[in-house]
Amino acid sequence: MTPDNLIPALRDIVGAAHVLTGDACIEFETDWRQRVRGKAYCVVRPACTAEVAKVMRACAQAGVSIVPQGGNTGLVEGSVPNADGEQIILSLRRMQAVRAIDLANMTVTVEAGCVLQSLQEAVHEAGLLFPLSLGAEGSCTIGGNLATNAGGTQVVRYGNARELCLGLEVVLADGQVWEGLQGLRKDNTGYDLRNLFIGSEGTLGIITAATLRLYPQPAAQLTAWAAVPSLEAATALLALSHRHLSSALTGFEVMNQGALKLVDAHYPHLRVPMWRETMWCVLLEASDSESEAHARARFEHLLQTAMEDDIVTDAIIAENIRQAHDLWHIRESITLAQAAEGLNIKHDVSVPISRIPEFVAQTDAQLQALAPGVRLINFGHLGDGNLHYNMQAPAGADAAAFIAAHEAAISDAVYQAVHRFGGSISAEHGIGALKRDKLPHYKTPVALQLMRTIKQALDPQCLLNPGRVLAAEPTQ
User: Fold this and answer.
1) pTM of the predicted structure, to 2 decimals
2) Alpha helix ranges (H) inside 333-420
3) In this structure, which CATH number among 3.30.465.10, 3.40.50.1000, 3.10.20.80, 3.30.750.24 belongs to the domain 98-216?
4) Cys staple from 386: which of 30, 78, 396, 427, with CB 3.0 to 4.6 Å?
5) Residue 428 and residue 415: Cα distance in Å, rounded?
């Protein structure tokens, strides 16, 4: 097999209609943020795991690298090819089947190309809950969620994608298939291969299916919106929520005034509450196994206590599902409002919750001095210590020119601050190509060497998503 006869071989495997070339590849070649455009040798769309394995074997024989792609909703430039036109995009979108729902074992086995929202709906119809929830759930896929260890809005209760996965089916770099779909909660038989592939961003193997953990549907789910005077008050409210609600607390999101101002400006019909009167707002969600009345009583007692302690200055509890949806829609619209406002700088970081107020105060001041007038758009999953710590150009400024002049220095300042506070430069988005060259500054040499050893062992030809996560050579 040589690169010259690879495309005919791929057509024999998946069918001619599912090997795309030329302009037909365009929609697969640009990242979600529209900041990076690659060039694919071709796009291959297999329909099953056996076809993925055959494609991988053909590419291995030809020495051609593969970029696995699901919904292409990633934010770190990890799912599009480079510009040399020599990489194949392996799109898993045709592999959408929900293979089985096991009611007694409370698991679902699903193919990698299944859209997250479709899985949520299928499981809901069966009377159960798959709790992974994020803004891109209408287009992101399960394979991508696992490859990046996606987080979302309910991590505080259910954990990241890793905690929700009990088994995987993975095609390796040489075309072998690891069949590890057992839905076991206990399996102490050696190295944890499943967790090795989760979060590896397609650099160690291609996830083709997964067995996922399910939960009972709650009897009631309530949402509240609270105004807090400071980020310190928000963290105090989180601690109080844990004490009052315990495991019933399923979501705890924080949004600063700058983020909500953008939503109000671009989506005024959403009627953002309270944002003009306070610097921070919190969105809380609680699930209850008893009844809505029980859930509401607990929520009301929590918020009353918080007001008496001067932690919350004002609050509302959604009266119905529509109102709850509207409040969540505001939170989920922040990213879209940033895009509508213009080019921006994104950071997905985590810091120990107890240190977040100090981190934000110090870093905000540093960035204002570094880039006067920069607009700080801070929001995220305070319940698990994850902030989307973003920046917008000064109002009226040329956004492209501002980013060209300041992005490198701003990102370095943010990452250095995160490191000082004992945090991580990537909480849930991954590393991809965007943060690849930053990683050696924030991982120990031992950790990096272990990662390279694993990569070499599983992908000695470096055919799986090369140039993502790890640089080809150690950065000096």
Assistant:
1) 0.92
2) 334-341, 356-370, 399-420
3) 3.30.465.10
4) 427
5) 15
